[in-house]
Design goal:
This protein is 49% helix and 6% strand. By secondary structure, the chain is mainly alpha-helical. Among the domains are: 39-89, no CATH class; 101-137 and 156-181, no CATH class.
Length: 181
C-alpha cells in the first residue's frame, strides 16, 4: 500500500511540476508575442514616416529610393488586381473607404463619397458631399405623381427618400444622389 502511496505522490508532484512549467511557458510565449507585436508596430511607424517623406517629394538615399519604388510598384499591382477582381464581381471600390459597390453608383452607400463617374477624372477632381450639404440641399422638384397602383418595395432594397432610387441593403447614403438615407 505504501508503494502505491509513494507512486501517487511522485506522480502528483510530476504533474504539478509539469503544469507549472506549462503555465510559465505560456506566460513567456504571451510576453514574447506582445514584444514582437510592439516591434512590428515600431517598424510600421518607421515605414509610415518614410512613406510620408517620399509622398511629399523627399528622399532618404539610394536604398530607400529603391524600396519606395518597390512599394509603389506593389501598390499599383494590388490596385490592378483589386480592379480585376471587382470587374469579375461586377462591382467597384469606393476610393475613400474601399467599400465594394455597384459599378453604376455615383455615390458610396457607406460613406457618401462622390465616385469617379468619368473614366479620365483624377482623384483630385472627385468630391465629397458633406453631411450638411446632403441634409440642407433642397430636393429636386418631382413631377406630380400619376395615379398608378403602387408596387411593394423589393425585399432588402433601401429606397432613397430624396430621389426614390433603389439602394443596396444596409446603405447609409444613396447611390444616385448621395444623400443620407
Amino acid at each position: 500500500m505504501s508503494d502505491l502511496k509513494d507512486t501517487l505522490l511522485r506522480f502528483t508532484k510530476g504533474v504539478s511540476k509539469t503544469s507549472g512549467e506549462i503555465l510559465k511557458s505560456t506566460k513567456l510565449s504571451l510576453a514574447l508575442a506582445s514584444e514582437e507585436d510592439k516591434l512590428k508596430q515600431l517598424y510600421m511607424e518607421i515605414g509610415k514616416k518614410v512613406h510620408e517623406i517620399y509622398q511629399y517629394g523627399g528622399t532618404l538615399g539610394k536604398f530607400f529610393d529603391e524600396k519606395y519604388a518597390e512599394i509603389q510598384q506593389t501598390e499599383t499591382a494590388i490596385f490592378e488586381l483589386k480592379n480585376q477582381m471587382n470587374m469579375i464581381k461586377g462591382v467597384k471600390s469606393c476610393t475613400k473607404c474601399g467599400a465594394s459597390i455597384e459599378r453604376t453608383a455615383e455615390f458610396c452607400p457607406k460613406c457618401g463619397y462622390r465616385l469617379d463617374t468619368a473614366a479620365g477624372s483624377s482623384h483630385a477632381e472627385r468630391q465629397y458631399i458633406s453631411a450638411d450639404e446632403r441634409l440642407y440641399t433642397p430636393a429636386p422638384e418631382q413631377p406630380p405623381a400619376t395615379e398608378q397602383p403602387s408596387k411593394p418595395p423589393e425585399i432588402n432594397i433601401v429606397i432613397c427618400r430624396n430621389c426614390q432610387a433603389k439602394n443596396e441593403p444596409g446603405s447609409k447614403f444613396c447611390l444616385t444622389c448621395g444623400r443620407m438615407i
